[in-house]
# Entry
Amino acid sequence: MNKFDEIFFWQYVSKWTKIITLVHKHIIVIIDKIIINYFFWAIIPSFLYYYSDVFKSYIPFFALEIFLIWIFFKWIYDIFDWYNDVWIITEDWVIDLEWSLFSSDSVAVKYESIEWLELVENWIIDSILWKWNILIHKIGSGNPFMLENASNASENIHKIDKKLKEEKKKHWENAKRSKNIEQNFETVLKALSQVVEWYLEDSWYKKDDSEEKKAIIKEVKKMWWVVDLSK
# Structure
């Protein structure tokens, strides 16, 4: 990602996160649109006007100039629209940005909400151009995120998948850590309940040296927050 992209799209991203990459639509999308607009709406009308007396008699020249200026600004708008319809891949979110002249809509999905990823090829030429549709299926949602005709789709979906696996691994490690803490807490509670019970039976520590009690005492002493007062 170049510096211009990073600065330009930073307004759509939280300052506490980092942009990993941007997924644009393939450049062939805008090239097709420009060629169609330029040929059918600029070259053909101009050709007919200059080589047809009928057109000249009914259409004043200034009207043709206004029309061609409008086509030019439409061409600029289409380029800007293509450039701004993008997925922003960050450390925490996948942001789907849809730009228009008067407003911009952005929808974000967290990695933990992603169920699976999909690449869809529309035509056989898509594999030659490295152009596919990328779909993100969310957990419990029937409407996936879709970026049509994405550029370098295979490479970009691997970046999303890599980040998705990292988040799932982090979630699993946190769950495992929480489970260990819960088990340690249960061990301490069990030990304390036994201590109270034995203490009420009159000096359990001095009179009863059963293996079960020794094992529990040994486990409790391993906890870093336990202070041995028996010494």
Helices lie at 3-8, 27-51, 53-58, 61-84, 125-129, 153-200, 204-207, 211-221. The radius of gyration is 33 Å. The chain has a mean pLDDT of 77. The first strand starts at residue 19 and ends at 24.
